[in-house]
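Aim 2, interim progress: modelling of the magnesium ion-bound target.
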Amino acid sequence: MKRIYLIGFMGCGKSAIGRRLSFMLKLPFYDMDKEIVRREGKTIPEIFEEHGEPYFRSLEARFLREFKSDCCIISTGGGTAINAENRKIMRETGLVLFLDAPFRDIWRRIHRDPNRPIVRRSTKEEIESLYHQRHSAYKRAAHISVRTEHRSLRQITEFVAFQVHRLKGE
Ligand SMILES: Nc1ncnc2c1ncn2[C@@H]1O[C@H](COP(=O)(O)OP(=O)(O)OP(=O)(O)O)[C@@H](O)[C@H]1O
Ligand SMILES: O=C(O)C1=C[C@@H](O)[C@@H](O)[C@H](O)C1
Ligand SMILES: [Mg+2]
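Predicted structure of the complex, ligand included:
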C-alpha cells in the first residue's frame, strides 16, 4: 500500500485524525510540521520569524521530495497542498484525503493558538479569505474529500479508514 496523505486548512484535524488513523490501521505516522520542527530545532513561529515563510515552504517541499517510506500516514501542513509540485508528488505516491471543515469550526479551533504564525499576523477576515482561496487547491489535490462538520474525531477516523480499505479492495 502507498502512503495516506491528509490535507486541508489549519485546524481541519489533519494531525488529530492522522494520529488516530495510525493507531487504527497500525501504520507509522508522520506529521510534516513536527518533522520540520524536529529537523530545524526551532518552532514554526521561530522559523517564520527568523527565516521567513518562503524558507518554511522550501522545507515542506524538500520533505516531500526526499521522503522515502511507504505504507504510512502523513499529516501535511495547512499550506503544503498549495504548491503544485507538492500536489503532484502526493498524488503520485499515495492516496490524498482532504478534510473539508467549515470555516466557523476552523476559526473556533485556531483563533487563540499562538503556534500558527499565519493566524497570529492576520485578521479573521484575512484568514477567511485565505480559506476560500485555498479551497480549490485542496479539491484539486485530493482523491477523496471528507466533510467533517458535525462529526467527531472518532467518526471521521473510522470513515477515512473505511475509504482506505474500500480502495485497497478495488
Ligand atoms: N471533528 C473534530 N471534532 C472535534 N475536535 C476536532 C475535530 N477536528 C479537529 N479537532 C480539534 O481541533 C484542533 C486542531 O486540529 P489539528 O491540530 O489536528 O489541525 P490541523 O489540521 O493539524 O492544523 P494545522 O494545519 O495547523 O497543523 C485539535 O485540538 C483537534 O483535536
Ligand atoms: O496553513 C498554513 O499555511 C500553515 C499551517 C500549519 O500546518 C503550519 O504548516 C504553518 O503554521 C503554516
Ligand atoms: Mg497539524
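The domain at 3-164 is CATH 3.40.50.300 (Rossmann fold). The longest helix spans residues 124-141.
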